[in-house]
Amino acid sequence: MEIPLDYETLRVIWWGLMGTLLIGFALTDGYDLGVAALMPFIGKTDEERRMAINAIAPHWEGHQVWFILGGGAIFAAWPFVYAVSFSGFYLAMFLVLSALILRPVAFKYRSKHADAGWRNRWDWALFIGGFVPALVFGVAVGNVLQGAPFRLDSDLRSFYEGSLLGLFSPFALMTGLLSVAMVVMHGAGFLSVKIEQGPVLDRARRIGSVAAIASVILFAAGGLWVANGAMGFRLEGAVDPNGPSNPLFIKTVAAPGAWLDNYGRYPWMVIAPVLGLVGPLVALLGIRHRSHVLNLAGSSLATVGIIATVGLSMFPFILPSSINPQSSLTAWNASSSHLTLWIMLIVTVIFLPLVLTYTAWVMKVLFGRISLRDVRTNPDFY
User: Fold this and answer.
1) Is the backbone of residue 160 left (phi > 0), alpha (psi -120 to 50) or beta?
2) Tens of pLDDT along 190-206?
């Protein structure tokens, strides 16, 4: 079978598609996580909290498809990455999945009893379901930037030599808090276009302002840490982007500051960190001027910029090794076969537009603000 795209091109396309899926998840389920994390703080009464819950209730299940697509894409396109990350980060992923499972349980069980204590406990369960995944996802990104403690032997068997607590290093905790600030800002931005004007939205705006400022500070601090800290990896010698998927065939070395190399090589990439810094300021401007469009647009731009900055800074690295740089996984040495990438691309070209279409359709059908009156009168609300 003759494949019209060469191996290198398909590898780059799939690297880009992985980034697209991550950004899609952050833009959609990100505001669901943000609203859930805001839950105990923006609603003082049961009706106020129910209004916030029902702002995301019609969407959150559909948005999780991005998470599932991301896991499936890693399995199909980057099997080495899937094997190392899903085994090495097993406990962290279990923590994330437990929190994500807690979220739908809280949605369903919260309104089963009218008891205030019962509902308050489930509101905190929603907070856990929003805060914990956002924190752990950010911590995972921090560990990817630093390098994960794994190695490959001569038979390409992976050995993970870290622990769950070891993932929560100072830098990783900072990236985790950045992730939390980002989704809280995005959740507040979504509420600005989804719920009626009133005390709930005012509280969301106040917390969103703090989250926007925190996002700028943490993102800038993270950039300085990456630039001046002992992190970064670099490929040495001849690299064949069309070569076989064997990490041991490409020489990799630890090189502090190397994560900035791509910005000198491809100056256009600086757009990503600029968006990461400007986006929260746009959201903050929207909050101050009560412009819901600027608020949501700013938080969305920030989300795209922050995630894209990580991917563009690291390219072609996907999962570097901190204890054995030679075992690092890149776009050139950790992908599936040429044929597999081509078949998966065809599948993606068919099904990704369907996902985008039904997501847009649901947004259109359910467009409009929710009011306290709706909470009191709509029997279908949680």
Assistant:
1) beta
2) 898 888 888 888 899 99
